[in-house]
Amino acid sequence: MTDRTIYLDHAATTPTDEKVLREMLPYFSDAYGNASSLHRVGRRAIAAVDAAREKVAQAIGALPSEIYFTSCGTESDNWAIAGVAEAYADKGRHILSSSVEHPAVMRSLARLEARGYEVTYLPVDRSGAVSVEAAVAAMRSDTVLVTIMTANNEVGSIQPVAEIFAAARARGIVTHTDAVQAIGSIPVNVGELNADLLSLSAHKFYGPKGVGALYLRKGVRIKGLLLGGEQERSLRGGTYNTPAIVGLGAAIEAATASQGENARHLASLKERFVAALREIPFTSLNGGSPSLPGTVNVTFSGVRNSELLFALDLEGIAASSGSACSSGSVEPSHVLTAMGLTKEEVGSSVRFSFGRENTEEVVDRTVAALKDILARLRADRDLFLQKKNDRKDV
Known about the structure:
Blueprint: E1 6-7, H1 18-24, H2 40-60, E2 67-70, H3 73-87, E3 94-98, H4 103-114, E4 118-122, H5 132-138, E5 143-147, H6 161-170, E6 174-178, H7 190-193, E7 197-201, E8 212-216, H8 242-257, H9 259-277, E9 283-286, E10 295-300, H10 305-314, E11 317-318, H11 334-338, H12 343-346, E12 349-353, H13 360-393
Parallel strand pairs: 1-11, 3-4, 3-5, 5-6, 6-7
Antiparallel strand pairs: 2-8, 7-8, 9-10, 10-12
Helix pairs in contact: 1-8, 2-8, 3-4, 5-6, 9-13, 10-13
């Protein structure tokens, strides 16, 4: 990344913090042992894994024995949903979720539906939030799992999971939340959320890619994910990715320690950015409050988001049209569609997500570039439509 690059896609991924990287490096070379080996080289590696497990547990208010390392948030989501559904199939085959979940959740649920499970997808309002009342009303005697994300990856809306999960627990229903976007941005505590399972991923809070974790509350049943060795209490076999796990531990420790300061910084940038956007004609914000402090989703009417993103990229500004995991999809955003936006509005929407290295100058430069680009694209579009209408009149 050059000094001229303005990176506003932190919801997709964050750069690995240099301090995190330094903690990881010895486990690629000096402390290279297999963490499952009994000799001293292996014991040094497993000690690092155990230390990281304690850091993750402390960050979210869990016990170390309730933390299971995975390869990413997607794997954690897949395992939580399929593993719980299978473990509790004797109780029922109904699952409750929302219509704005990450593709890792949506596709896991679709696979279960193909196997005969019934899934109720709760609608959201214009802000992207689920109704607590609607969620409670949708719970049934055969509901085995409620899975609702903590915060949305496209518009940043924070869901009322604590209230919904409290009602689910009172009915003996297992609860899972995808907290991938929330860690490091807002306080996340599994006890306060009433969560039985929680998914997280290191690369969303300045850790390395390719490592995540699943919190599984003691006493909750789940089917194992990977068959192999005895790793992760025999529920997920496979050699430990020690350097990445060390990085996850270092990153979540730093992220939770600076969460308040970071949130205030991001909120200040977001407020400045939103205030400037309100001065741009034919521009509307998507989502509402409460929402993540650094995520802004905007509809720029009359402009295709693909053209706008390309033009921004030429100016050295990186943003996105939504979930990085769906960037290759030709379908409109299911999140914005569920919120009531038209196909045209969805096709004109862009997500900007700020990070701790961004500054007010970055905001101002982005706004200035947006104004110039939008004026040019809209002028080109108006000229095209005029020529199209002229041809019709001939």
